[in-house]
Amino acid sequence: MDRLTKIICTLGPSTSTEASVAGLIGAGMDYARLNFSYGSHDEHKDRMDMLRRVSAGKRKVGIIQDLPGPKIRIGSMEGKIKLKEGSTVVLAEDGASGKGEIPVTCKGLARAVSSGGSILMSDGKIRLKVKGTENGSVSCVVEDGGTIKAHNGVSIVGGKLDIGAITEEDMEHMKFGIENGVDYIAISFVTSADDIRLAKSLIAKWGSDIPVIAKVERKAALDNLDGIIEASDAVMVARGDLAIDIGFENLALAQKRIIKRSNELGKPVIAATQFLFSMVRGKVPTRAEATDIANAVIDGSDAIMLSDETAVGRYPQRAVAVLDMIVSRMEEEQDIRRRLSERRNRFYDRFH
User: Is 286 considered catalytic here?
Assistant: First the structure.
């Protein structure tokens, strides 16, 4: 029985050889995601060429280009820094930071925060409370400590940044993706249908019709959900940053709502982030992860995406095999199979 729910795998250091990519394909990968937050164009081109070589004569695999968007990160610094609870740290715009300050890649950082507000780092593991601002720098108290390093993610809870979803860097990436024939372009940190319309107009301007995936990872996107879904070719429930923005306690309901509306409006929907996170280091999924995957299929996901599990994990092929096994088992249920079959043609197979 052919599996209807697609499997998307993020390529990275753990899947950078022909043997490892062949292993992913053999285990069930349908699409490869290239995360343009990391790596050079030359590195991504090498991965595309390798993927096409390995899949030639077998089952072809589509390529999803995932753009960075206006993601805030810790800037350039050497080594790691341990932030102790109760200590005071100072954040400053990368390039303008002084000795002892933590550089952050956010123009107008001090204007985007307010006293008493929260700043999260490293996927929410580290929490800072804003004390105040001075000369463009932000003074904070460490509430939940941990270790940080260059390029870790930074989230300003409730902050308002005057930046669009498509940056100048994204535009250069899009041109590269178009030139090299990617199958989808994913737009990060979408807040309205205008972001998708802009992406589509740029793609058309550069002579292409590559479909666009809207990544829902901000509260503003939930507030404008129907318009975003209608403007997009596909939607991604990007659970990592979405949970940080709306709170972990609200994530499950948001996921169900996004999937349900995507189904109702006839657009493919991808569920993403930490489905098999324990398998980054371990060989067996947790019971909670197995249930999470099953529920994503039951809810109506057209695809499920693996990130760290295949990009940097120890057992990428095994993780895909586990995902394939759980999804396939769910599709044996007649009611689930029937509902999936009714919308099978929704997810673009541009390479067929």
Answer: no
